[in-house]
Write a structure and sequence with these properties.
Layout lengths: L1 E9 L3 H19 L2 E7 L3 H7 L5 H9 L2 E6 L14 H11 L4 E7 L12 H6 L2 E7 L9 E6 L2 E6 L5 H17 L3 E6 L5 H14 L6 E6 H10 L6 E4 L1 H14 L9 E3 L6 E2 L18 H13 L4 H16 L17 H15 L1
Parallel strand pairs: 1-2, 1-3, 3-12, 5-10, 8-9, 8-10
Antiparallel strand pairs: 4-5, 4-11, 6-7, 11-12
Helix pairs in contact: 1-10, 1-12, 6-7, 8-9, 10-11, 11-12
The chain binds 3-isopropylmalic acid (IPM) and magnesium ion.
Amino acid sequence: MDYHIALVKGDGIGPEIVDNAVRVLEAVGRLCGHTFRFQSYLAGGCAIDQCGKPLPQETIDGCLASDSVLLGEVGGPKWDGLSGDQRPEKALLQLRSVLGLYTNLRPARIYSALKDACPLKRDTAEKGFDLMMVRELTGGIYFGQRGRREGKYGPEAYDTESYSVNEIKRIAKVAFETAKKRRKKLTSIDKANVLETSRLWRSVIHEMAVDYPDVDCSDMLVDNAAMQLIRDPAQFDVVVTTNMFGDILSDEASQITGSIGLLPSASLGETKRGMYEPIHGSAPDIAGTGKANPIATILSAAMMLRYSFDLERESHLIEEAVDAVLAAGWRTADLAGPGQNTLTGSQMTDKIIQEIENRF
Ligand code: IPM
Ligand code: MG
């Protein structure tokens, strides 16, 4: 079958990690008889430089016309001085919004080969963990009213968090359904001791829990969750939370896997078209050095095969190849211990492709 994939490489390490993931997809396509057609579009800082705005209409149209979107990263110090609406990050938020991608799946697990890279206590790392963070992606404080005004103490700025019952219901449904297919445990994370949005969030979750009697559902306050992730990450199976809490906790979850360079994500809506991107940033400091770990983007491409194209076997093939390459001791700079040999991102990709070919 033919699949049309929009590539939004973005800034910093974006182009190199996306190019590596494309090579993996091409290898899988070649072996399994699929044709992946790629079309690149500008977004972020590079779009500001070339078109004067972070998200050109052509990119929106191209993504809407594609079967799925693979995204690198946007942003960098060069554009940090721009106002909120002109920043590269605006492109990402707008894309999520126009594509209707309200669900963000961020799996985090520890690879047995990387237990030494896990900064947690040895016995916690040994126990391992495997969680799926379900982050609400098109609502909350990211999209609420914001601005500047004169306040009691002089000039001030404000951002507002709001959630409707329907927005909470639709993300909760994804979370319950995800938990049903996994270990049937759902932790809903909020700040209901302070925030009204969290109290509404909690009551909607409780209402929906009645329809999922086989899922063990509980609430946790976000400050406690930040602590529990470090103390005992194995207690989590599926976690559901708001846009901002999910942003913060998923970075924490990534760090305890050993490196932020490993974590993929899938952004999904009501249709099969999704947007897939690593959860890390554009790392302008290492862009062009070959150091960037492509694994998070390669695993994001694997998620695309699973969620957008229903190619479970092909998705699994990529994931198994990544596991095997790590188990064989190959490391990019972010994963290497002292004195360990390191591969460039493109050499790591070669190893993964070789492993895919061997396994096929
Ligand atoms: C992420 C990123 C984005 C977010 C930024 C770049 C806008 O941190 O995908 O986690 O906050 O959602
Ligand atoms: Mg983030």
